[in-house]
């Protein structure tokens, strides 16, 4: 897990949700003590380039409830697609089979928490929900709503680093099937049927409701 003691922030960098972009943004606005914990090395300084952020969620030792939690998120419809592209190049499994198959995404899914799927199922075990959600589709807007970050640098520096890593997700398009619009919306509508969309919505309804994604939003992702 990642933290900044100076700003009293904990960063949960959910995989597949532009976590690298947000981590680079946080260090780019001079959060010089953004750290992650390594079992052998102890606390590692991300700002100094000693290592990259971790996807692990949790409450670091030595912090308390005064620390606010930032968590990356994204539309579940594109999250499913992104997770599928991670395995499709190796397995050749179709998107439909990934969602509906016996060995697919939702097999034993309540217990299948990993760094890139069902991250919200960890929150009850941790005992806290995030204080700030940073949506892949609206990264700068959401980052601006975090006063600990917004007040940490000049507007000039904010604009400079936002242009570099946030206003357009430079990490989008790493897979052959990735296809993004200019506003960080991944084009996935052609992969969905109403049946597949209903399955995703029913399984992942909590994150739709918690973050505010629309049930029919898949239709606009084209």
Task: Please provide the ordered H/E string of secondary-structure elements.
Answer: EEHEEEHHHEHHHHH
Q: How much strand?
A: 5-15%
Strand line-up of the largest beta sheet: 4-3-1-2-5-6
Number of structural units classed as domains: 1
Number of strand segments: 6
| N- to C-terminal distance | 34 Å
The major pleated sheet works out as:
6 strands, mixed
Number of helices: 9
Q: Please mark out the parts with pLDDT under 50 across 5 or more consecutive residues, or reply none.
A: none
The helix content is: 25-40%
Tell me the structural class.
alpha/beta
Shape: globular
Instruction: Please tell me how large the radius of gyration is.
Output: 18 Å
Q: Averaged pLDDT, please?
A: 89
């Amino acid at each position: 897990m990642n933290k900044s003691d100076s700003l009293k922030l904990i960063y949960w960098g959910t995989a597949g949700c532009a976590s690298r972009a947000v981590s680079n943004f946080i260090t780019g606005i001079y959060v010089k003590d953004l750290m992650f914990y390594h079992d052998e090395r102890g606390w590692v300084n991300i700002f100094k380039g000693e290592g990259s952020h971790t996807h692990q969620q949790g409450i670091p030792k030595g912090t308390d409830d005064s620390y606010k939690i930032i968590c990356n998120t994204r539309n579940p419809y594109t999250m499913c697609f992104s997770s599928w592209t991670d395995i499709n190049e190796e397995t050749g499994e179709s998107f439909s089979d990934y969602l509906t198959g016996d060995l697919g995404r939702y097999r034993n899914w309540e217990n299948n928490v990993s760094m890139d799927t069902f991250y919200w199922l960890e929150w009850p075990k941790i005992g806290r929900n995030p204080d700030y959600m940073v949506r892949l589709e609206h990264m700068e807007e959401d980052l601006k709503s975090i006063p600990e970050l917004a007040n940490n640098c000049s507007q000039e520096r904010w604009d400079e680093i936002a242009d570099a890593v946030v206003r357009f997700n430079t990490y989008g398009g790493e897979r052959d099937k990735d296809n993004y619009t200019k506003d960080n919306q991944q084009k996935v509508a052609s992969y969905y049927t109403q049946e597949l969309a209903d399955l995703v919505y029913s399984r992942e309804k909590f994150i739709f409701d918690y973050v505010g994604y629309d049930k029919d939003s898949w239709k606009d992702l084209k």
